[in-house]
Specification:
With about 575 residues, the protein is an alpha+beta fold. Among the domains are: about 80 residues, Sulfite Reductase Hemoprotein, domain 2 (Alpha-Beta Complex), CATH 3.90.480.10; about 150 residues, 2-Layer Sandwich (Sulfite Reductase Hemoprotein, domain 1), CATH 3.30.413.10. It is built from 19 helices and 20 strands. A five-stranded antiparallel sheet has the order 1-2-5-4-13. Strand 16, helix 15 and strand 17 form a beta-alpha-beta unit. Helix 5 packs antiparallel against helix 12, helix 9 crosses helix 11 and helix 10 packs across helix 11. The longest helix has 17 residues.
């Protein structure tokens, strides 16, 4: 029997129920493909330990099935109690680690099927949900994590929560399956409760949908990678409104020229009071016109590319009963986080801490998990997770600074100032052994790659040079490789596509430099770029500025920019000029 499409599975799921509850309590080792698709909406991915696949297959054993559970944290905000709840769950039901995501969420890895319901139930007991952290819905809304007490940062967090509440699915299936019928607010549904989804409808969205909020000049949320982005505009210290951008997204498939990354385009400016209405208008336009026959073409970026931004703007206007103005000009200077100690504007401090690949764990050399648990338990400080997979402790009394520094030092947590700027910026996705889509390693090898790159940077006295390097295990782009200065995207075990030409501000897309290079050759390829940069830079140019002055990737997005090697494109363009 032919497998059903995801659209069929959603439409026939009885508001995301399917047979999840029956399989959950059965002796089955794992869920069916249909159930797997629905589980995503509930915030969990069915996976297996890929390190064990070959050995288990030789022994005629089933795969080592495990689950990743993702919490939905608007703006990356957690109370001290919520952080500790996740830490305990990781130790008791997971693999003793917490993974910060590029969407400011927490992922728990290694959860067994028999513990899945208890894991999700306990997350909800901390008043956090996993509903909508995955699936064809609006995912976690990201916002600047810096806990500054100015109006822009306060309003960004407020707007993130408003948008999250607006787009949370209304189905009671989640409560029935995972919470014994209790709703997220602790109440049980009554007979008049509805299964209607006023925004999503029966079939939900064509694909996942990502929303972000940014405050210039720090583009820490990578606003142009979002399906829908809000850029804060202030006058006199007050947030007057937001410039809206649409159609960003980085997923693609190697060699499939109909797939490509795209940066979001300006749509219009809207006053603050209409921001949520504008979001609903954009999301419902994608709901009604997004491609539902080909999931590789279903993201908003393809709709905007196919129909054009003017058409899309007109459709949004039809749904938005509010005045709009032209998009405002905006300037960015970095995608980085505020790391180290800072005043937050109310007499208290915050401390941003770099985490290697966002994995909170204890190793022989560095005890991130123990250090963070001690800080939160002892001082009761709240937490923000960043889209660069780092952590911020905030609302800290200045008198506690020395004690927190001592805790970090005892657990050998590196200080940001002791790292190269490139390392502080760098990012890798999870990849193997848990991600089912990974074609190559990423998180587990990236720190080793950066060790070699650090040596090169120090050799050329570039420790403080902001070069943005990212790595992913497949072309879906979870670590946002397609707007980095330099990136490596997995093609096969030990093999990567090599891209160059994005920017440290997140405003420019890469171009494919080499289709395939070996993992061990990455440092030498980076050295070539560094040497070229050092010998030819002008007037203290950054790597980003140097590349923009000396190389042209082409009008973005052009599909061959990501699928055809740079040398071949340059030869073709030269031949065209000569002709």
């Amino acid at each position: 029997m032919a497998s059903r499409s995801v659209e069929e599975i959603k439409g026939e799921s009885h508001a995301l129920r399917g047979d999840i509850r029956d399989t959950l309590i059965s002796d089955a080792s794992h869920f069916s493909e249909d159930e797997y698709q629905l589980l995503k909406f509930h915030g969990t991915y069915q996976q297996d330990d890929r390190d064990q696949r070959v050995a288990r297959k030789k022994q005629n054993l089933d795969k080592a099935w495990i689950f990743m559970v993702r919490s939905k944290l608007p703006g990356g905000a957690l109370t001290a109690e919520q952080y500790l709840a996740h830490d305990r769950i990781a130790g008791e039901l997971g693999n003793n680690t917490l993974r910060i995501t590029t969407r400011q969420g927490f992922q728990l890895h290694g959860v067994l099927k028999g513990d899945l319901k208890e894991c999700i139930r306990r997350i909800n007991l901390s008043r956090i949900t996993t509903l909508g952290a995955c699936g064809d819905v609006v995912r976690n809304t990201v916002a600047p994590a810096a806990p500054l007490k100015d109006e822009a940062h306060l309003d960004a967090q407020r707007l993130a929560k408003e948008l999250s509440d607006t787009f949370l699915a209304k189905t009671s299936a989640y409560a029935e399956i995972w919470l014994n019928g209790e709703r997220l607010n602790g109440e049980r549904p009554n007979e008049s409760s509805t299964e209607e989804e006023p925004i999503y409808g029966k079939f939900y969205l064509p694909r996942k949908f990502k929303i972000g909020i940014a405050i210039p000049p720090r583009n820490d949320v990578d606003i142009y990678s979002q399906d829908l982005g809000f850029i804060s505009h202030q006058e006199g210290g007050r947030v007057k409104g937001y410039t809206i951008v649409v159609g960003g997204g980085f997923g693609m498939s190697h060699g499939k020229t109909e797939t490509f990354p795209a940066l979001a385009k300006p749509l219009f400016y809207v006053a603050r009071e209409y921001a949520v209405k504008a979001a609903v208008a954009v999301v419902t336009t994608q709901r009604d016109f997004g491609n539902r026959t080909d999931r590789k073409q279903a993201r908003l970026k393809y709709l905007v590319n196919e129909r054009g931004i003017h058409w899309f703007r007109t459709e949004v206007y039809k749904r938005l009963d509010a005045p709009v103005e032209p998009a405002r000009e905006v300037t960015w200077d970095t995608v980085s986080d505020l790391l180290g100690w800072h005043e937050q504007g109310d007499g208290k401090l915050f401390c941003g801490i770099w985490i290697e690949e966002g994995r909170i764990k204890d190793t022989e050399g560095r005890r991130w998990r123990s250090a963070f648990r001690e800080i939160v338990e002892k001082f009761g400080v709240p937490v923000r997770l960043t889209t660069n997979c780092n952590i911020i402790f905030h609302d800290i009394e200045p008198s506690l600074k020395a004690q927190i520094d001592d805790t970090l030092r005892r657990h050998r947590i590196p200080r940001p100032e002791d790292l190269t700027e490139t390392r502080r910026l760098a990012q890798a996705c999870v990849a193997l052994p848990t991600c089912g889509l990974a074609l190559a390693e990423s998180e587990r090898v990236f720190h080793l790659v950066l060790d070699r790159i650090d040596e090169i940077l120090k050799e050329y006295d570039l420790q403080d040079e902001p070069i943005l390097i990212r790595m992913t295990g497949c072309p879906n782009g979870c670590a946002r490789p397609y707007n980095a200065d330099i990136s490596f995207v997995g093609r096969a075990p030990g093999k990567y596509a090599f891209y160059v030409g994005g920017s440290v501000t997140g405003e420019r897309l890469v171009g494919l430099r080499e289709k395939t290079i070996a993992l061990e050759d990455i440092p030498s390829r980076v050295r070539e770029l560094i040497e070229e940069f050092v010998h030819n830079r002008q007037n203290g140019e950054t790597f980003t500025d140097y590349w923009g002055r000396t190389h042209v990737n082409g009008a973005a997005p052009t599909p061959d920019q990501f699928h055809t090697e740079l040398a071949r494109r340059e030869a073709r363009d030269f031949a065209a000029v000569e002709a």
